[in-house]
Amino acid sequence: MSAHLVPVRVTASLAGGIAHAGTWGIALDGLLASQLREQDKAAAADTGTVVAGLHDLDDPPDLPLPLARCGTGQRWHWAATCAWPVDGHGLMPDVRWWSGRVDHADLEVLADGMPAIVSERQGRYRARWMPLLTTVCSAVSWYAVGDPERIRRLLVGLPAIGKKRAAGHGQVTGWEVAPMPELDPWNAGHLHPDGSLGRPCPVECLAGRQVRVAGAGVAGIRPPYMHPARAHELALPTAGPA
After folding, report:
1. pLDDT, tens digit, for every residue of 29-51?
2. Max intra-chain CA distance, the chain
3. Are 175 and 152 contacting, i.e. CB atoms less than 8 angstroms apart?
4. Predicted confidence (pLDDT) at residue 90 exceeds the cutoff of 60
5. Tens digits of per-residue pLDDT, 72-85?
6. Which candidate, 100, 122, 99, 102, places its Cα nearest to that of 111?
7. Average pLDDT over the chain, rounded to whole?
8. Would you kindly state where each structural domain of the chain is located, as residue ranges?
9. Burial class of 48 by CB neighbour count within 10 A (0 to 12, 13 to 18, 19+)
10. What's this model's pTM, rounded to 2 decimal places?
11. In the chain, where do the E strands start and end?
């Protein structure tokens, strides 16, 4: 492992909690990859080129994240965990709601012609009233093995995380990246603070170790997590303390 890659704790202070779709928290390597991806797209735009969409590629490239790697072959992963709420554990997620309705006046401006009726009960223009599960907490944290300064530079400009960011959810009020030399590197790359599994990983990573997991299933092993090429049968992380 490079001397620049050390155990770290990353903390995002939040204005009012975070909304996310998965049963476990947002992956730190996914956040870092998204920031590098945005930088690549901005650089390409400056030169008038277009960056190919990741889902248009059969096997998307792995971006050079400032993190250590664990494993070999196709089943390796970055040494970084998923988000862990620093407080609020034991509480049920707060159910919030979002709504959406098409503005018919805007449609009339944009469309060449309008049907007599635009249904709000079916089809692509239907009205929506949807639940949004939100973890109410003052901050979330991650463990990782990586380069603290490069991680800090990537995250410092990230203003919000999670779902429905444009509506104010997941607003980040500050980032902290702290080296944690007392942490065991393997634990930092795999476990939540309570010792349970903190990220999806191959079962071979856990060989000989007593680690509480949430079971096994097909999940993404590294960014881009939703790409079919990243799907493997993995041990799954826990969502919180037992």
Report:
1. 999 999 999 888 888 887 888 77
2. 68
3. yes
4. no
5. 888 999 999 999 99
6. 102
7. 88
8. 6-91+136-193, 94-130
9. exposed
10. 0.87
11. 6-14, 18-19, 69-70, 77-78, 84-85, 94-100, 128-135, 139-146, 172-179, 216-220, 231-235
